Amino acid sequence: MRYAIIGGGAAGCALAWHLTQNGHQVVVYERWNGLGGLASEIPFGKTSLDRFYHHIFTSDRHVLAFAEMTGLSDKLRWCDSSVGFEHQGKLYPFTTPKDLLTFSPLPFLSRFRVGLAVLRMRRRESYADLESVTAEDFIIREMGESAYRVLWEPLLRSKFGDSYREVSAVWFWGKIKLRGGTRSKKGGESLGYMKDGWAQIYQRMGEAIQRRGGEFRFREIVKRVSRTPEGLSVKTRSSEDVYDRVISTPSIPSFLEIAEGLPEDYRSQLGRVRYQANVCLALGLKHAISPYYWLNVTHPESPFVAVIDHTRLFDDPDYGESRPVYLSRYLDADHPYYSMRQPELIDTFLDGLEKIFPRFSRDWVETVEASKAEFAQPVIGLHYSKQKPAFTTPIEGLYLCTMAQIYPEDRGMNYALKTAEELLLELGEIKRLSA
Fold it and tell me: How far apart are CA 98 and CA 115, in angstroms?
């Protein structure tokens, strides 16, 4: 059978990996000049770094399975993480249960109540009763008003912008449960990183796909997918080819832009899936800037919501004299930061860094790489199980496999790989998940 896969990110690579293994002819269309999507790489020192920050949890079995299948398991490092919380200009440790109990912005009884609620959420297996409850209402009910206002409301705002009050309690439960399953013996988090970056998994997958006869068409933007008497036509600026099946892996808006002949009610249903964009700066600094790997920034005037000092998790001598630090901001795609010219954006973010870390000097900055993704985070609202798109579409042979179909888990590399395999299970191309 002849397959076209649109998108060479994690899902696209996993689909092509299995389909070529089964003897199918596969062509992957990728608009950029490389694989990995949001896990693509940038050069850094003598090695490579993720364009957008990535780490994995001990429960991310699908990433671990592909690391094994591509022969890269020996490059995986498990590291003790550290988390900080900025509140009204002051930094607090927020990694272990003890850190919660000493978190002075909350009254002691409130801290204790948060800890008990987190334990209950980690033990919870079912989420059906949470689908009709917002994260806001659930947190206030379980943890109290003060905990919500100080801890969780700023984090929800930072992730979902103006839509934060619509987010389902299922999303919040999923985040707490996932992080609770990756604790080290010391009570903190144990997170995984791959030396030389995650993109190499997808590069290895791509090499295997090509050896099996698969084809990659880089820098090819698909303009149209339509049903013809011969099959499904995929048209780009430079070519038009016909396939038996087509699988689209980018965002729902991207799919709606290229798919012809979809019924209006189906278009309307898919159009209700909304996204947050992301702007991310990867800095190379002369010195460490944060005492934590991950610092949540809650100040409303900060241009970014997280400072990720990568070497606090994994310090590679191949980075050289520079220390990689990420500054991240989720926002609506119509936010001024998203369309801001790069020099102005960099200047704005560095202004914010100076306010949080007064000792920071711009002389520390040796390199800057600014990246953005328009469809970085689906907004998971109430009753999302009913809104989540099916793999099959009304057009025969045309399938969807996107991050908007990851539920109740949150989007990420592990669940992109898992979702691709779930589609292949449905198509009868594999008998079980790789993990």
Answer: 10
Whether the per-residue pLDDT at 216 is higher than 70: the answer is yes
Helix (H) or strand (E) holding 2: strand 2-6
In angstroms, the Cα distances linking 52 to 1, 49, 200 are 35, 9, 14
Inform me whether the pLDDT recorded for 430 exceeds 70: yes
Answer yes or no: are the C-beta atoms of 370 and 343 closer than 8 Å.
no
What element of type H or E holds 146? helix 145-147
Q: Are 252 and 264 in contact (CB under 8 A)?
A: no
CA atoms of 100 and 391, how far apart (whole Å): 41
Q: Which residue has the higher pLDDT, 299 or 23?
A: 23
Cα angle: 296, vertex 302, 308; to 5 degrees: 35
| DSSP secondary structure string for all residues of 268-310 | HHHHT--EEEEEEEEEEESS---SSSEEEE--TT-S-SEEEEG
**What whole-number percentage of the chain has pLDDT above 70?**
98
Q: How many CB atoms lie within 10 A of CB 396?
A: 10
Looking at domain 275-378, what is its CATH homologous superfamily?
Protoporphyrinogen oxidase, mitochondrial; domain 2 (3.90.660.20)
Q: Which fold has domain 2-79+196-273+380-427?
A: FAD/NAD(P)-binding domain (3.50.50)
Query: Which of 82, 78, 28 is closest to 57 using CA atoms?
Result: 78
